[in-house]
Amino acid sequence: MGTCCDWLSSLLPLLSSLPSHPSLQPSNTALPELAAAWRAGFFAEIHYRFEHKLPAEDIDVTHRRVLDRLLAERSVGLDAWDDEVRQRLVSGWHDQKGWPDAAPALEKLRKKFFVVVLANGTTKLQLDIAKSSGLPFHMLFSSELLGFTKPDPEIYRKALRLMGVEPQNAMMVAAHAYDLRAAKTVGFKTAYIYRSTEDVDEDMQAVQNDVDVFLDGRNGTLECGLGALANLLDAEENDLSTR
Ligand SMILES: *[C@@H]1O[C@H](CO)[C@@H](O)[C@H](O)[C@H]1NC(C)=O
Ligand SMILES: *[C@@H]1O[C@H](CO)[C@@H](O)[C@H](O)[C@H]1NC(C)=O
């Protein structure tokens, strides 16, 4: 979510189709702002849970709680957006499209590498997003399935053990700097994909210094982001496999 999929473009049509409300007109910036605040609120909540060692929570439950809070702040009551509407929105996160570069790049990469998802969340969410996006992953590793949550180093180690891959032969690819910084401590190579929707508060200069490969994935062409990564690994294949 974010690295391979464009959650914002996936969610906006659904948001725009909902009953209009004085504080949420489809024509202004209120809906994109709501979507961004929802994503940020979700991150803040799961970060809080991790810091306080609380058990992981189903993403739908967290999304619903954050949505209720954001709508209350905007004076959108249950009379305007009722329970059914809110549940439809929460389910919207299960239905995502890939960024334009994602599918062709994964097709190319999967011929040479195991291409797997390693992400927080439930396996059900990953299955739904894999199905709606059509992205051709070999395997979906969720925090639910592996029993650890990012950025716990154990989740990265467990994924490697399950694949039978040594860390120096693995690359973590993400649009989230904290994730790459954690993977690096385990010995992964790291590739950062810069996406317009992710890491909006990160210092990108610092990120560039911390990762092995930094790729801009924002211009919407097939050559950006994951496309650039696929080309790079194609060219550097021998070099990378001996490092
Ligand atoms: C993964 O979960 C951890 C802990 O809950 C959180 O800090 C982090 O932001 C999450 N990352 C993603 C991409 O969901
Ligand atoms: C888009 O970004 C990629 C990767 O940074 C770059 O190679 C490509 O030239 C860019 N294309 C356009 C049209 O800006």
TrEMBL record:
Keywords, ordered alphabetically: Hydrolase, Signal
Stretch forming the signal peptide: 1-17
Top-level lineage group: Eukaryota
One GO molecular-function entry: phosphatase activity
Coiled-coil positions: none
This protein's record includes keyword Ribosomal protein: no
Membrane-spanning intervals of the chain: none
PANTHER family (alphabetical): HALOACID DEHALOGENASE, TYPE II (AFU_ORTHOLOGUE AFUA_2G07750)-RELATED (PTHR43316:SF3), HYDROLASE, HALOACID DELAHOGENASE-RELATED (PTHR43316)
NCBIfam families, sorted: HAD-SF-IA-v1, HAD-SF-IA-v2
Name the UniProt record assigns to this protein: Haloacid dehalogenase
